[in-house]
Amino acid sequence: MKCRHCGAPLDLPFIDLGSAPPSNSYLTEAALNGPETWYPLRVLVCTACWLVQTEDHAGRDEFFSEDYAYFSATSTSWLAHAKAYVEVMTDRFDLTPDSMVVEVAANDGYLLQYVKSRGIPCYGIEPTASTAAAARARGIEIDQRFFGVELARELDGAGRSADLIAANNVLAHVPDINDFAAGFTALLKPAGVATFEFPHLLRLVQENQFDTIYHEHYSYLSLTAVARIFTANGLRVFDVEELPTHGGSLRIYADRADTGAREISPRVAALLARETDAGMTDAAFYSGFQPRAEKVKDDLVAFLIDAKRKGLKVGAYGAAAKGNTLMNFAGIRPDLVPYVVDRAEAKQGKFMPGSRIPIVGETHLKADRPDLVLILPWNIKAEVASQLAYARDWNAKFVTAVPQLTVD
Q1: Are residues 259 and 323 in the same domain?
Q2: Helix 149-157 crosses helix 177-187 at what angle (to 10 degrees)?
Q3: DSSP-derived pairing of the beta strands 359-360 and 372-375
Q4: Does residue 252 share a domain with residue 142?
């Protein structure tokens, strides 16, 4: 395999999580009688441009199907994040009713609803039918296609170019990262700005966040790699912020290299230097990650087996992709975790891919009154613990496995 960005051969391994089905391919009850397609889940590092990437085994249509089940608006903390983003961008870039805002990977309209409420023209680009329908139900215009240069040029030619393009948690999800990045150059107005949010690879490694690795994430990103990719595709990074979302993310600001004139923030050079100082441009940085992930797996399995032997009832919360990575890497099945609660109605009544653990609504948790609640989306543990605070009434304890096993 060659690097998705620069074409160099990939020969430095990062982690091997065995094999798993696509993390968002939830099963219906009828599908339990049939087979699932599992793909190897191995990640490699390009030592030429330092882009960390999964091996290629299937096309994007396999991972982002019509019944894609991830809906952003189910998280109250993420809605608050989106609303705050719109407020900040509106002020910083003087967005008005004469502006145009576009979101790539608009999902269920979680963000553009706040743009629309301010009277700012906007539309979203979202290829998955399920989330696109939810966005349209919120009154958001959606172009239901995958984004790239061809679509961007078509939209630009139709007078749909953007003053601001938002791209939250999508840059890692694209197989052709060069075509995707170049699409922003094509769709931005001469003075337009694009922002990208994604989990920071530095935090992923330092904090053992291996469960954010799954097939839908083709790339694991540092500022070092992204700056090189953007430069090669006509974009210029002019600012960067560190965010607490998803266990530690970056928000990168970029404009067109040919027309952008915004002052480059000193934060860009400072973070690039920090990544270099941490060793992210050295092969040694990426070694040793495998045994750290295996320790999390071993500790969790041992804990769950011990709980079963003690007769403790266990329930899990959050049928998210990272939870599927953990369940399948650890080989956990319904005998150890009999159900997973999720607020998304689209997931309820279905089963986790691979592990085939039933997904239920919150009423099931209240009726079952488990002794232990395993919170799979550890990045929103505080939100979940607050939501499930009533479980303390029967002395339930909350458990997370990443970055290390904690019980409280």
Answers
A1: no
A2: 10
A3: unpaired
A4: yes
**Regions of the chain with pLDDT less than 70:** 57-70
Is 276 a member of any domain?
no
For residue 169, what is the domain's CATH number? 3.40.50.150
Q: Which residues contact 34 (CB under 8 A, 6 or more apart)?
A: none
Last residue of a domain, one of 247, 266, 285: 266
CATH of the domain at 355: 3.40.50.720
At 161, give phi and psi (nearest 5°).
Answer: -70, 160
198: left (phi over 0), alpha (psi -120 to 50) or beta: beta
Helix (H) or strand (E) holding 317: strand 314-317
Q: What is the pLDDT of residues 109-163, one digit of tens each?
A: 999 999 999 999 999 999 999 899 999 999 999 999 999 999 999 999 999 999 9
152: which residues sit within 8 A by CB, 6+ positions away? 182, 183, 184, 185, 186, 187
DSSP letter (8 states) at residue 371 = S
Quick one: pLDDT at residue 99? Answer: 98
The pLDDT score that the predictor gives to residue 295 is 97
Total domains, the chain: 2
Q: Does residue 397 sit in helix, strand or coil?
A: strand
Helix (H) or strand (E) holding 109: none
* 129 class by beta-carbon count within 10 Å (0-12 exposed, 13-18 middle, 19+ buried): middle
3-state secondary structure of 252: strand
How many angstroms separate the CA atoms of 400 and 92, rounded?
Answer: 38
In a domain, 382, yes or no: yes
Give me 263's structure tokens: 């002052």
Can you give the residue range of the structural domain that contains 403? Answer: 301-407
Is 241 in contact with 267 (CB distance < 8 Å)? yes
Q: Which of 181, 160, 162, 161 is nearest to 170 (CA)?
A: 181
Determine the straight-line distance between the first and last CA of the chain, rounded to whole angstroms.
Answer: 44
Structure tokens at 364: 């099931």
Q: Which of 351, 162, 368, 169 is nearest to 252 (CA)?
A: 169
- pTM tops 0.70: yes
pLDDT at position 75: 83
Last residue of a domain, one of 244, 266, 288: 266
Residue with tokens 């096993």: 405
- Whether residue 305 sits in one domain with residue 193: no
